[in-house]
Description:
Number of domains: 2
Order of helices and strands: HHHHHHHHHHHHHHHHHHHHHH
Number of strands: 0
Distance between the termini: 69 Å
Amino acid sequence: MWFLKKTGPRLSNPAAERQTNGKTFVSPDSVISVLLGAVFVVLCTAVLSFEAIEQKNWSAVLAVMVIITLLSLSAGSYIHLFQKRLVQNHIRTISLILLFTLALAATKIGILLTHHSFWATGTAATVAIILVLSYNQRFAISMSIFYCLVVCFAVGPKADVDILLTTLAAAVSFCFLLREIRTRMKLLEVGTLTSAIVFIMSAALDSWKQNRSPDLIFTNAGYHAAVTFLVSLLIQSLLPLIEKLFHITTSMTLLDYSDANQPLLKRLAIEAPGTYSHSLLVGSIAEAAAEAIGRNGLLCRVGAYYHDAGKINKPAYFIENEMGLNRHKELSPTMSQLIIVAHVKDGLEMAKEYGLPSVLHQFIETHHGTTLVEYFYNAARKKYDEKLYEVSESEFRYTGPKPQTKEAAIVMLADSAEGAVRALAEPTPPRIETVVHNMSMKRLQDGQFDECELTLKELSQIEASISKSLAVHYHGRISYPEPLEGTSEGAQSQNNQPEQNQQL
């Protein structure tokens, strides 16, 4: 197919260049996304035009289809510009379509049965909660607005600005207030506050009409507020099921996996204590660095806890777990490299075995990216140079992939920087800054950050945060002089010295 053919990197003909741009625009992912969008339009039209289809009012059906198509094109343009990963992830696109379709169907059925518009408010709140838990806040707000515009058609021709603003009040409030769930009461607290906002909005809109009694105004506002709170209560109870259905990992789930009593972490602490200590430190460093650039610090910390889980299989072959015996002395550089690289694959297998959330898998498989195992590569070159055997660099690289998210890139840099600083004889703050910067530039020049959209400004902020964290951890200690023997000061000093060192 013509749109799948590769083109050369350089084109001297402007017309050919424009043609190439057109070809790259029509990609298989784009075609599939357009088809999925068309399916969504058809499903929405069928749900929203149920009565018109039953009455064979095809002009009304066509009108609804045109409106839904225009709204979908707007939403699709936004996704194409700001959420390109969603275009490439068709499973998540299908999940989003199913979420919207089921919510619209529930609204339509509820209104047909009860003839009350509070169903629209309830489904709008449900969609907003699931979106803000599954995606970033900006995307959740945008798609929630899109849903609120569409759900008005489920109410029918009687829908007015009251329904639109009430559903928007519920959806946008949840998106703004519910960025993450770290406690079990968070969702209920946000639900209570959002219910109050919805009540005020609904009552104010009904009062503005000046043709309704106070009893009717407060009753209608109470229905909308009550269903908003019930939605938060329902999702709170169904949160584990929602996480599995939509492949969501909330902050509360991440906190559960950060518990030291988790089976895999317990194994790591017992069988590879050096690696466990290193992982805890990397987690603390990565969390601070992520928060410095406005990313998910909790995700970085928990991901760092498990990033070296594969070392459990052969802990003694990694320097942090060595007990004075270097097992690599008896092995060839090639065999040592195979053992070192294998801990990534072993870690992924363990993550699946212990049921770790898929969002944590990325930290295991990308924390080395495609970097070079330099120590054994240089050892191999030194060993085989005399025999005129050329050592291939590709044989001594990790298989990857490279970090796909900024959080994964942060853990990669924190991991490598901590190991490099630990090897310093005198880790002073200036030396630590130099080591962290050199490691950062090394990873950048090696192309390890090419796929995670990390900017140079963010990289500089990450460097500063990692350097500060490592300087605090590896701070210098005062060297106390040995006390003179036979003096009371010396005896007292000997008794107090452990206490002094502990304070430092």
